[in-house]
Design a protein that fits this description.
By secondary structure, the chain is α/β, with parallel strands linked by helices. Helix content is 44%, strand content 12%. Helix 1 runs antiparallel to helix 2.
Length: 298
């Protein structure tokens, strides 16, 4: 049977049972999206080095095929759709909860990258997490396990977690500190900078962090004054870009979305993309054999 049948030239396609519908029909859109998900999971499985994870992903792929087939089977079809059982949903929920319960890893907000060297992976670490017994290098192990296929890893941790920060800086080549444009940031800058300079980075040198103004509002004279003072103190270690104050950020978080997905044309989205571009420039990608294209934002 040839795939070039010309039966779809009129803008229609066939559902299960031979029923003809528009190619813009919601069922076609839905099972097409599931097909794309299955393909992405297939790529992820091809680069995964964990046999157990590969097996789990393959099982989910096969169940998604059943879901797609069920969606492609309208009620008027003479052929019964595959059965989608509550047990399948429960098993997937259990898998999600198992992953969420892994020590130290809280969450991951992902956004596709736009260039061949774009892959960046965000790892958010619990500030109360400590090394499991018998695993003193658990941060390094977590990075290796979580970032297969990524060319860059961004580790998100508060400076209040000093024990975490010190371990992270042993594997980090670049540190970025977000600060709000107020007087307390100016006053505490020396203390923060000294804390980092007492640490040693992955390349064996004292850490010289970069700084990023967060929740910046150019209409406020105080914000403009603080930026000027920080420029004089930090020079090129103060990023030329800022993250502008925007209600879209909190609205996106409330919806469980990244701001880039929630408000793709907003100024604050442009800010996050500028940060990603800066990171690509200052941090060389990992080995060329790594594949994928992700950037993450929290």
């Amino acid at each position: 049977m040839s795939i070039a049948t010309k039966r779809g030239d009129g803008g229609q396609t066939g559902l299960v049972g031979g029923i003809r519908v528009s190619k813009a029909h919601p069922r076609v859109e839905c099972y097409g999206t599931i097909d794309e998900l299955i393909s992405q999971m297939g790529f992820a499985r091809s680069i995964c080095q964990d046999a157990e994870v590969r097996e789990r992903v393959e099982r989910i792929q096969r169940e998604l095929y059943k879901v797609g087939s069920a969606i492609a089977t309208p009620p008027e079809s003479k052929k019964a759709p595959p059965e989608i059982t509550p047990a399948m949903v429960d098993a997937l929920d259990a898998e999600v909860h198992r992953i969420e319960a892994e020590p130290g890893v809280l969450g991951d907000w992902s956004l596709p990258g736009g260039t061949p060297d774009a892959p960046i992976h965000l790892l958010s670490l619990d500030t109360d997490a400590h090394a499991p017994e018998g695993h003193p290098d658990w941060i390094g192990e977590t990075i290796v396990r979580s970032a297969v296929g990524m060319q860059r890893v961004v580790i998100d941790a508060t400076t209040a977690a000093g024990h975490l920060a010190k371990q992270i800086m042993r594997v980090a080549t670049c540190v970025l500190v977000p600060i709000v444009p107020d007087l307390s940031s100016v006053v505490s800058l020396t203390t923060v900078d000294n804390f980092f300079r007492q640490q040693t980075s992955a390349d064996g040198r004292p850490v010289a962090p970069f700084y990023l103004l967060n929740q910046f509002d150019s209409s406020l004279p105080l914000h403009l004054d603080v930026r000027e003072v920080l420029r004089q103190q930090l020079g090129d270690r103060l990023l030329p870009t800022v993250v502008r104050r925007s209600p879209a950020v909190s609205e996106a978080l409330a919806e469980g979305m990244t701001v880039v997905d929630y408000a793709p044309n907003s100024p604050v989205t442009e800010d996050y993309l500028n940060i990603a571009a800066w990171l690509r420039n200052v941090s060389a990608p990992a080995a060329a054999s790594f594949r994928g294209s992700r950037w993450s934002e929290r």
